[in-house]
Amino acid sequence: MKILVTGAAGFVGFHTARTLLERGDTVVGLDNFNDYYDVGLKNARAAIIDAYPNFKMARLDLQDRDGVEQLFKDERFEKVVHLAAQAGVRYSIENPHAYIDSNIVGTLHILEGCRHHKVKHLVYASSSSVYGANTAMPFSIHQNVDHPLALYGATKKANELMAHCYANLYGLPTTGLRFFTVYGPYGRPDMALFLFTRNIIEGKPIDVFNYGNHRRDFTYIDDIVEGVIRTMDHTAAANPDWDASKPDPGTSNVPYRLYNIGNQQPIELMRYIEVIEECVGKKAEKNLLPLQPGDVPDTYADTEDLVRDVGYKPDTAIETGVRKFVDWYLEYYQSDEEQSA
Question: How confident is the model over 296-310, as pLDDT tens digits?
């Protein structure tokens, strides 16, 4: 298949593109290589997938309506995996316009490209952030998600609504994937695992919000990628049992589906830090701080629908996943230091 992967120089996009390439698909990546975090890390990811003969990268911004339209016209994709977005809950409080531009306008351009060029299936990244103020655990796709706590979550909820419109109006099969705290090698430098690992190694204190009373459904990157590709291969279909008088938020009478991808094993943040300490071989100095605006105390994914429909359940233990990240971090930054010396 020829597949478009947006955000291909990003964390999840890079790993997804590489896995698709390894199985023999032709992949076109789209990324604008913005400077929200270290562009050098994005370039390093891109260099790895650029080496595949069945890959090419389009350095393009999703906001470029004409550019995105031309890309769809030229390439004739069979399927699209839309992972590009302005990420980060906290940053959405500082720079809300970036989220509308990228996550709303950019997603509209992808939907329009899929609509006009007969894409067979659109899979797109949503987020556990859509659950917002909900505290009913575990989070289920069949629950109402109308109370986001920050604009980031609101834009992801909006993406799901937009996708439903296109599934309804144009018969475009769409599947939204709500990711739960993704971590692993080549991860984002603004995420807790990266920040904690770097500071512990450098002997600097780490900021521990909500005084460490967080629980997170940490999900290893390989599990996320497996879920993305399995759902991509399993084209969304209408739910024949959908009842308009009691509408189910997770399905529809049009080809529209939502799934959680989480480890289904919420881990106490302090335990997560302990595992990092064990892998690094050093203790952390902790700054215990209150809950950040827009953040939620706990996340916990109900993945029953994912297991039933595509036969997959994420299950990588944090001890295994964190070890792989720390090993990568030490190798990546050590070799970087050696080249700079």
Answer: 888 889 999 999 999
Q: Which two tokens stand for residue 124?
A: 């797109």
pTM score over 0.70: yes
Give the Cα separation of 196 and 165 in Å (integer): 41
Helix (H), strand (E), coil (C) string for the chain:
CEEEEECCCCHHHHHHHHHHHHCCCEEEEEECCCCCCCHHHHHHHHHHHHCCCCEEEEECCCCCHHHHHHHHHHHCCCEEEECCCCCCHHHHHHCHHHHHHHHHHHHHHHHHHHHHCCCCEEEEEEEHHHHCCCCCCCECCCCCCCCCCCHHHHHHHHHHHHHHHHHHHHCCCEEEEEECCEECCCCCCCCHHHHHHHHHHHCCCEEEHHHHCCEECCEEHHHHHHHHHHHHHCCCCCCCCCCCCCCCCCCCCCCEEEEEECCCCCEEHHHHHHHHHHHHCCCCCEEECCCCCCCCCECCECCHHHHHHHCCCCCCCHHHHHHHHHHHHHHHHHHHHHHHC
**Enzyme catalytic residues:** 152
d(CA 273, CA 196): 8
Type of residue at 223: D
End-to-end CA distance of the chain: 44
What's the pLDDT tens digit per position in 244-270? 999 999 999 999 999 999 998 899 999
Q: Which residues contact 336 (CB under 8 A, 6 or more apart)?
A: none
